[in-house]
Every structure is written in structure tokens, then in C-alpha cells.
């Protein structure tokens, strides 16, 4: 972190003015100082990271807080309000954002000036490789959001006519991104980093697998672009990049703590779990750098109160590897019944019976709290168990940006899309992930039978049993880590954003429910609030209206059934939502960039 502050200072000097007229201009002196030595290159390159908790001018990597919030717009996430993005007429160019290019100039300036022949060629190539890695990350984010964007590979000044150029084609930009990633993977010299905060050769390969999987499947399923013929190239690149990490990276799935703890440990540890975490945003108490995971995930007002939906929770397998929904009684199982005997990641992702919290040193039961959750499926993945962290930016857990599990999933999906996925591939990817989660069945061979629930509710166009299971596994393993909405985009499954926000099953009104089986009731659902109320119990009104206004919290069968949240507010998916609109102010500055279809 200290190096980052120094590097930002040096980068700022590049554009500083003169302090005294008789001296060499400071911008010239600073440029020579930075680009004439390996230490200068290192200091400048540190400015590319800039991944503290709040985004800065040079931000490329997501911050810890970015990741913590990153799945608040996903098909499996009920939240305080329906996102404006999927409300008809609520979002457009005036509300859009993200068309910022400051960090790109910082990167391009470095690439253009890291040419001093006094520095060994391999050293220069290493740092240029880092710069091109960050440029690839920058552009991948832009293409995911806006589609076609201008490709800029030079540090422009205010007189450059290309400041007002139009957008380049997706193929041209993404081919340039791939060239940057190839250069990075071939030239970055760092092969290990115990802090898990630096870009290594394996991180570059891992990111390449992410980019290539996205682009390959996007081209395959988003057929209106007529790029299906090029999808195989990108999927093949994804396989090769993931395979390089698997063979050369030295990473393994974390299994410390056993099936009950090994998964969640990845998200609440103070230091990155280095056998699996490849890149992380870490805290630094000495510099007062923390994240606000608990505040965001346990506050009734600060966060979005994101809760998982029942449709998604139903996709977690039984421990024997069979679908939970193969039991015909699943629809009317209560919360305490349905969470038993399931994939151990469920109990490490949401509050289930047995979960406890620490309050002033005392260990207390931690059932789902309905001032935080709308569905009863209350996430714990990123939040710490001590209530001390709940009231501000206090969290000291490191936040994963990339981990080995994703690489296994990238490899499996790309091979399945290519039609080359084998039983051996299943064992070392999906089978390994499920084994870590405590699942005992179906680990040694890819499936041959389609799960009708998964197919009907999520992927009706997919008939390959293995591909369906890979998508199930990706959703569960990477839930709440920011992958879901981009996955829906590349799979062309945006319609899933219209799914009902449903919660656990409530068998009857006015019936107290003990959600963590500690012998104390936690919640009652009612239409007419009883005159006498039980101490320590939350009462939830599910009447048709409250004070003459439609009630956002209801039961699906009126007096029983699944909880539903905001079912009275329509959500509409439109083809145009696969890309964000170009912000209006940016179009006014440069009309040549045009607008995305439908906006």
C-alpha cells in the first residue's frame, strides 16, 4: 500500500508544472527519474493496482467493496428495490455511467515511455506486460458493459483528434485485448506472490481464461452479432489458459477446516487463503484500509438487504449428489427441513440452524433476521460473525478477486462448450468442487441424465447434462462474487432477471417459526397483528395491503406458501439490456460514439 501511494505521487508528477523558472521543468525531470530505472518502472506500475476500498482515478481492479456488492443485481438476489435497470422506463442514457478513460491514459503513457535501452529488455517487457494486463482488464470491463468501444493504445493529449473518434468493432477491440493478454502471460516474470496482491503469470493466465470463456460463449449464444463462427477460437484459448494455471500455478482447492468450514474460510480470513486465492484485495490496519462487508450485509438501511431466492436455493444438491427437487415434497418443506443434508456450501453461504454470532464476547444463536432478509435465505458469505463489525467500515477480512475454483469452472465450461469434456475432466473440476462441499455421489463421471428442474427453471435451451451441471456448479460456487449477471449476459439468459423473488415456505399464518432450532421462536407471519405478541419474535405483515398500499411482502397462496417480495412491481427484460446505454453527457461531448441499439 505504501508503494501504491508513492507511485501515485510519481504519476502525478508526470503532469506537474515548474516550481521555479530557472529549473528543469519538473514534468521532464520526473519522467526521466521514473523511466530510467527498474525501480522507477516498479513504482509507476504500482499505480495500476490502486485497489483500496474506494475507486480512484487510476482504478482498474475492482475494490473490496465493489466485490462485496457485485451480485446485488442478479437473478438469485432479492433486494430492497427492483433495480431501475430492469424497470420499464426507469433507466436510460441519463442514468448510465462507466464511460471513464482516466486509468487508460495512465497505462498507455507508461507503455509509450518504458523504452529506455539502459534497462534490460526482459525487465521492460515484464513491466509492459503488467501494463498490458491492466489495459486488457480495463477494456474487458468496457466491452462487457457497452459492447463496441473506441480502441485507444496511446496517451492522448487535449489536441489529439482521436479524442473524438467513434467506436471500433467488438472483434477489433477483443482481438487487441487477447493480444495484450498473450503478451502479459508471455512476459510477466513474477511466478509467486505470497501476499496474493500482485499480478503474477498465473493470474494473467487465469484472467485470460475468464475473458476468453466470456467472449467465446457470448459469440456462441448472442447470435445477432453473427460471430458464432469465431466462438471456438475463444473457447480453445480459454481451455489452454485455464490448463496452464492447473498444471503450472501450484494452486489447490482449500480443504482446511473440513467440509463445514473450508469454503467460507476463503471469504472471511484476514489474510488470503493462499493455496486457493490467486488475487485478493487485502486490508491494511496501519493505513486504516478496511472494507464494510458486515455493515452492508447486516444493516437494515445501509445495504441492499440482498437475500437469495428459493428457486436458486433449490439448485443446491443433496449430499448424496442427487437433486434436492427430486423429492416431490420439496415444495412444502419448511426452512429447517430443506437445509438439512444439503451441499455444505449452503450452510456456509446463508444462515442455517447452528449458525452463531459473537456479541460482546458471548456466543449467541444467529437465525435469519427479517429486518435484514426478505426471503429468509440470509447471506453470511462475506460477513464476519462478530457483531462488532456490523456498524461501519471495520471489516478486516481479505476479499478474493480471483481464486482457483473459478479456473476449474472456466476449464470445465469451455471444454463442454467445445464438446471435448471427459469423465477425467469432470473428476478434476466439478467432482473436486463437489467433494470439497461434502457431496459424496456422482464425483467420478460426468452425468448422463438432465435434471428437469434445472433445465425448466434456468436453461431450457440446454440438453447436455454435463453442461447443465457445470452451470449449476458455477452459480453455487461463485454466488455473490460478481459473476452472475455477466454470466446471464453471455448465456443470453437475461429473462432470468424476471424471476419471482421467492422465499422459504410458510405453512400457515399466525404460526411461530423457530428458524434455527434453538427452542426459541423467531418469526410469525400474519394478516391481522395479534394483540399479544411473543417476546423476541419478529412479526411480518403479509396482508394484501398495508395502509391502503399494495404490500410488497406476501405469501404465494395468500395464507400459506412461499414468501414473495416485490411481486407487485413489474420487471421487464428487453433485448437492449444486454448492453448498457452510452451515457448522455458523453455522447453530447462526442456524437461520433453513437448509441447502443434500443437506447
From TrEMBL:
<dbReference type="GO" id="GO:0009279">
    <property type="term" value="C:cell outer membrane"/>
</dbReference>
<dbReference type="Pfam" id="PF07980">
    <property type="entry name" value="SusD_RagB"/>
</dbReference>
<dbReference type="InterPro" id="IPR012944">
    <property type="entry name" value="SusD_RagB_dom"/>
</dbReference>
<feature type="domain" description="RagB/SusD">
    <location>
        <begin position="303"/>
        <end position="599"/>
    </location>
</feature>
<comment type="similarity">
    <text>Belongs to the SusD family.</text>
</comment>
<dbReference type="InterPro" id="IPR011990">
    <property type="entry name" value="TPR-like_helical_dom_sf"/>
</dbReference>
<protein>
    <submittedName>
        <fullName>RagB/SusD family nutrient uptake outer membrane protein</fullName>
    </submittedName>
</protein>
<keyword id="KW-0732">Signal</keyword>
<keyword id="KW-0998">Cell outer membrane</keyword>
<keyword id="KW-0472">Membrane</keyword>
Amino acid at each position: 500500500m505504501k508503494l501504491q501511494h508513492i507511485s501515485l505521487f510519481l504519476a502525478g508528477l508526470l503532469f506537474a508544472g515548474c516550481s521555479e523558472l530557472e529549473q528543469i521543468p519538473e514534468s521532464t525531470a520526473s519522467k526521466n527519474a521514473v523511466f530510467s530505472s527498474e525501480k522507477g518502472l516498479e513504482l509507476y506500475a504500482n499505480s495500476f493496482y490502486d485497489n483500496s476500498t474506494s475507486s480512484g482515478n487510476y482504478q482498474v481492479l475492482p475494490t473490496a467493496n465493489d466485490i462485496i456488492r457485485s451480485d446485488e443485481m442478479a437473478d438469485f438476489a432479492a433486494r430492497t428495490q427492483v433495480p431501475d435497470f430492469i424497470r420499464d422506463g426507469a433507466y436510460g442514457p441519463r442514468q448510465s455511467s462507466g464511460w471513464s478513460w482516466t486509468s487508460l491514459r495512465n497505462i498507455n503513457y507508461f507503455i509509450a515511455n518504458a523504452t529506455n535501452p539502459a534497462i534490460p529488455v526482459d525487465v521492460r517487457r515484464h513491466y509492459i506486460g503488467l501494463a498490458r494486463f491492466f489495459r486488457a482488464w480495463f477494456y474487458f470491463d468496457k466491452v462487457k458493459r457497452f459492447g463496441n468501444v473506441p480502441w485507444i493504445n496511446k496517451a492522448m493529449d487535449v489536441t489529439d483528434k482521436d479524442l473524438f473518434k467513434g467506436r471500433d468493432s467488438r472483434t477489433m477491440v477483443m482481438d487487441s485485448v487477447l493480444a495484450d493478454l498473450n503478451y502479459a502471460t508471455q512476459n510477466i516474470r513474477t511466478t509467486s506472490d505470497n501476499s496474493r496482491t500482485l499480478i503474477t503469470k498465473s493470474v494473467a493466465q487465469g484472467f485470460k481464461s475468464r475473458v476468453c470463456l466470456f467472449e467465446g460463449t457470448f459469440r456462441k449464444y448472442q447470435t445477432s452479432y453473427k460471430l458464432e463462427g469465431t466462438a471456438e477460437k475463444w473457447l480453445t484459448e480459454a481451455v489452454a489458459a485455464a490448463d496452464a494455471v492447473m498444471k503450472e500455478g501450484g494452486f489447490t482447492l482449500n480443504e482446511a477446516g473440513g467440509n463445514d468450514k473450508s469454503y467460507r474460510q476463503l471469504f472471511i480470513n484476514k489474510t488470503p487463503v493462499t493455496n486457493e486465492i490467486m488475487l485478493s484485495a487485502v486490508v491494511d490496519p496501519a493505513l486504516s484500509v478496511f472494507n464494510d462487508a458486515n455493515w452492508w450485509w447486516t444493516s437494515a438501511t445501509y445495504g441492499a438487504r440482498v437475500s437469495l431466492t428459493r428457486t436458486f436455493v433449490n439448485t443446491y444438491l443433496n449430499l448424496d449428489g442427487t437433486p434436492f427437487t427430486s423429492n416431490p415434497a420439496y415444495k412444502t418443506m419448511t426452512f429447517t427441513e430443506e437445509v438439512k443434508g444439503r451441499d455444505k456450501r449452503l450452510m456456509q453461504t446463508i444462515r442455517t440452524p447452528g449458525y452463531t454470532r459473537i456479541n460482546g464476547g458471548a456466543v449467541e444463536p444467529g437465525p435469519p433476521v427479517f429486518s435484514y432478509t426478505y426471503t429468509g435465505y440470509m447471506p453470511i458469505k462475506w460477513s464476519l460473525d462478530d457483531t462488532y463489525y456490523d456498524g461501519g467500515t471495520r471489516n478486516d477480512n481479505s476479499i478474493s478477486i480471483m481464486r482457483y475454483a473459478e479456473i476449474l469452472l472456466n476449464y470445465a465450461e469451455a471444454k463442454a462448450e467445445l464438446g471435448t469434456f471427459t469423465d477425467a475432466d469432470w473428476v478434476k473440476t466439478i467432482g473436486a468442487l463437489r467433494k470439497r462441499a461434502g457431496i459424496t455421489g456422482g464425483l467420478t463421471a460426468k452425468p448422463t441424465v438432465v435434471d428437469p428442474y434445472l433445465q425448466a427453471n434456468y436453461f431450457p435451451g440446454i440438453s447436455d447434462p454435463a453442461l447443465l451441471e457445470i452451470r449449476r456448479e458455477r452459480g453455487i460456487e461463485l454466488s455473490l462474487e460478481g459473476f452472475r449477471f455477466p454470466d446471464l449476459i453471455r448465456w443470453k439468459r437475461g429473462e432470468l432477471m424476471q424471476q419471482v423473488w421467492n422465499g422459504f415456505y410458510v405453512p400457515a399464518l399466525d404460526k411461530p417459526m423457530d428458524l434455527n432450532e434453538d427452542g426459541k421462536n423467531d418469526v410469525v407471519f400474519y394478516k391481522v397483528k395479534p394483540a399479544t405478541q411473543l417476546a423476541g419474535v419478529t412479526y411480518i405483515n403479509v396482508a394484501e395491503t398495508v395502509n391502503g398500499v399494495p404490500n410488497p411482502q406476501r405469501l404465494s397462496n395468500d395464507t400459506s406458501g412461499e414468501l414473495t417480495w416485490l411481486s407487485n412491481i413489474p420487471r421487464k427484460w428487453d433485448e437492449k439490456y444486454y448492453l448498457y446505454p452510452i451515457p448522455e453527457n458523453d455522447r453530447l461531448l462526442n456524437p461520433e460514439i453513437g448509441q447502443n441499439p434500443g437506447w
